Amino acid sequence: MKIERVLANNPGPFTGPGTNTWILDDGSGHVVVIDPGPIDPVHADTIVSRIGARRVEAVLVTHSHADHAPLANSLASFLGVAAVGNAPGPGFSPDRMVGEGDSVRVGALDVVIVYTPGHADDHLCFLAGRALFTGDHIMGGSSVMVERMAPYLASLERLRGLDLDRMYPGHGDEIGEPAPVIDWYLAHRRQRHEEIRKAIMAGAKNVDDIVETVYAQVDSNLYPLAAHSVRAHLGLLLAEGRIALSDDDYVISPQSSPK
Prior knowledge:
Blueprint: E1 2-7, E2 20-25, E3 30-34, H1 41-51, E4 55-60, H2 72-79, E5 82-85, E6 96-97, E7 103-106, E8 109-115, E9 124-128, E10 131-135, H3 149-160, E11 166-169, H4 178-201, H5 207-214, H6 223-239, E12 243-245, E13 252-254
Parallel strand pairs: 3-4, 4-5, 5-6, 10-11
Antiparallel strand pairs: 1-2, 2-3, 7-8, 8-9, 9-10, 12-13
């Protein structure tokens, strides 16, 4: 098995150096393209050039966010293969929709679908042997924005049960020791959960208050992403019965811990 990275030209505060497009070769010249990224003719030409004469089986999309998916349909059409993902999204409509336990055949290799909602409801990881392509579920060198916290934590626990050798994220460098990174992600989220609860106990009344308290050491340019994750934590705290949340003005009050 051979894995190559083609970096999209979309660097920024939310994407790091850019989106990683991965070309996975089963070792005999059968390949899939994973996360082709935003529409960019130069990036598309680079992907096609890197594929060369090899046989392409599919274009896979971890999730339908704008930095991962929009090039998928046109690239798949050009290559004469299906664009594969979990659900439609802005600029992306999968030719084949897949979910937990499905697989895509790549020559002698089965790429198994692992459904990992949390960062996005349609998020998938792709398991090839002991290599996992993680999209934005786990990134190289940073935590991620989370839309729904309970499914995200459950998805991380799901990955803990896999026998992994390496992870290939949607942003940042490949990860050579998956287990401690997954453990760090879980510990980080649990720590944030308690920090947010404590900020509420100390008087924080809305999302902005919490962001400014809990993320005081973070670049303020990242506060909009932090706010998404705070809302996800609030949703879980609400489900746990540990806070009360007003729908109209985001006023928050602590509740007694459930017995």
